[in-house]
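writing this on my phone so excuse typos. first protein, seq and then structure
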Amino acid sequence: MNMLPPASGEWTSGEWVEIGDLEAIPRRGSRVVKTARGDIAVFRTIDDKVFALEDRCPHRGGPLSQGIVQGDSVTCPLHNWEIGLADGRARGADQGCAKRIAVKLEQGRVSLAWADLLETAP
């Protein structure tokens, strides 16, 4: 999945960027959206809920998109930190948070909030 630049002018804070079909994201898996501000991991749960987080574990920057999705969390592939998909927060004794990106799912199409993408750390 790749994010396309705006067709005309600048995006405004209330807009959504459509990134593709839900079916392009495997259940219990993810896809990466490349942006100028960094990669976004878009996750799909077994029951077709969709979440998006900055693709960096808060621990050591591991690629969350390569982690294992279990229920409503993803396990970082580097050091097994469990990160909540809904809020980006580390679970258990671990502390830290991956930035959450708002997601909209309509008629099988996935969109991300443009304002959240602008705020993603480089």
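second protein below, same order as before
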Amino acid sequence: MTESEFIKFYRKRNYCRNEEEAKRRIDLFWNVLLKALDENRKVVFKGWGMFEKKDIRSRRIVAPICEEVSYTKPKKAVKFRAGMKLVETVNKNSGKDE
């Protein structure tokens, strides 16, 4: 599902006036989530899952063609770990299609 398809789905499901309002609501959720991750490094939605900000170390990379050694820059990444209720819901809904 693309972003525009998701926005249309969200608009129909939540009775938004137009797609701009739906996009604004979705963007608001992500902005608040990212600000919370900056402050607390972890956001937990009970039963749904956990967003966590993790530090990624520098890694050594060797280019196979020229055998040149380089290193990546250390960075931060957002990881998501699904909760049991989300996993059960996805597995339950995927069983209907078969």
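The first strand starts at residue 42 and ends at 45. thats all i got for now
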